[in-house]
Amino acid sequence: EKHLYKRTKNTMSTEQPQSNRLYVGNIPWSTTVEELQGLFTDAENIEIPTGRQNRSRGYALVSFSDESAAQSAMQAMNGHALGDRNISVRADNPLPKAPKSSSRGSGGAPVQRPTNLPEAEEGCRCYVGNLAWETDEQALIEHCQTIGHPVLRCEVARQSGGRSKGWALIDFASKEAADAGVKALHDTECRARSIIVRAERPGGAAATKPPREIRPENSSGLQIVVRNLPWSTTSDDLRQVFQQVGTVVDAKSTCHDDTGRSKGWGTVLFETQEQAQAAIAGFNGVELEGRPMQIKIDRFE
Known about the structure:
By secondary structure, the chain is of the alpha+beta class. It has helices at 33-39, 67-77, 137-147, 175-185, 205-208, 235-242, 273-283; strands spanning 2-8, 21-25, 45-50, 59-63, 81-82, 85-86, 88-91, 125-129, 153-158, 164-171, 189-190, 193-194, 196-199, 223-227, 248-255, 262-270, 287-288, 291-292, 294-297. Strands 1-3-4-2-7 form a 5-stranded antiparallel sheet, with helices on one face.
């Protein structure tokens, strides 16, 4: 990982003891090292890792001179408001690597599932999707407890390098508790993401999921798909943003039928292909209310 945003108070060894370093998650994309220094005044070193296009990954690593200072900062700042978000502060513990699964789905591809959880009683295990990358087991357990539905066990699915895959399995004490948990937890916000919660299918998702229908591409080159939108984005918001590059024939923010809340993506139809390409060139990666938009030509209009 690159670490373009960095501030060091004095010369330190790069091998900082883990007990002296904190992980600060759910920070706004625009957060600077100077802003974090204003919160963590005793920090020895602050880094904001970046990914593609030198954009923040949404978390920071904050190092202190000793474990006591780190613990004091964690207790004081966990849940603190930064911009429109509440930051998550914990010890920077190495992420456990999930063992490789030897099970395979009907198509022959490996089924990547957490394997550290013991077998749960029927109806007690639930699937949790659309998790933020920085959400770990402790954060998800605390979220469930906050809503009023504690869980017995939790495991976040991870890639071989330890990074979250964005989903997890949680176990409840009984089927009744699981059913109540699904109703209460589904579509709640955890680390600024609206999570998906449902009962886990017997044998995992791959055991009962039908083969995905292959859709033929049908693109005029006039319509773009805009992803990673803020939940508050409306169709009018999309129209106002993209009419800067051309004539917007239609703009639609896709919403949930029951709540009317945005699903985090939408489409914009232009008058010409050149305008659609100009929208991609001009706005792909540009932040809208703190979230970098991901824009591509709609291949399936």
